Amino acid sequence: MAMGSLSDSDDDFNPEINTTPLVDVMLVLLIIFIITIPVINHSVKIDLPKAVSAPDDLKPENIQLSIDADGQIQWNGEYIEENQLAPRIATAAKKQPLPELHLFAERTTEYEKVAQVMAAAQAGGLTKIGFVTNPQAK
After folding, report:
1. pTM higher than 0.85, yes or no?
2. What are phi and psi of 80, to 5 degrees?
3. Cα–Cα nearest to 14, from 4, 6, 1
4. What's the chain's Rg over C-alpha atoms?
5. Residues 3, 14: Cα–Cα separation, whole Å
């Protein structure tokens, strides 16, 4: 039994696949790849300078500033008076890199006291202020 039809009618279905265009396209692609592969592998030797970078290990100092419910101020665990705060902030602001101020206030501390400390820090030159919280306290 033959696959093709022997009739000359144009309405008959022709099940044969014409592979000639497919072979032509594959040969053109083969020629393109043969031409381009040597161009891709061609390289120029360049002596680049060696760069050495040291990691930046300078981390800023952290100043722990606490305000309790009575308005008492602690500077790194040491109780200080209100009039001692501004000179300490000014001294800390002169350090390089600029230290970070970590501010912890108890939940019952008056906001006015916290705002005064923040204003003193900003006026003294400490611009990095972080708020420390205790999520366990209720």
Report:
1. no
2. -130, 160
3. 4
4. 39
5. 9
Q: What distance in Å separates the CA atoms of residue 62 and residue 77, rounded to the nearest whole number?
A: 12
Q: What is the pLDDT of residue 78?
A: 94
DSSP-based three-state secondary structure for 54 = coil
First to last CA, the chain: 92
Best CA proximity match to 130, nearest among 58, 61, 82:
61
Paired tokens of 115:
């705002």
What are 12's two structure tokens?
Answer: 């008959």
Ordered alpha helix ranges (H), the chain: 20-41, 82-93, 111-124
At 7-32, the pLDDT tens digits run: 555 667 777 888 888 999 999 999 99
pLDDT of residue 31: 93
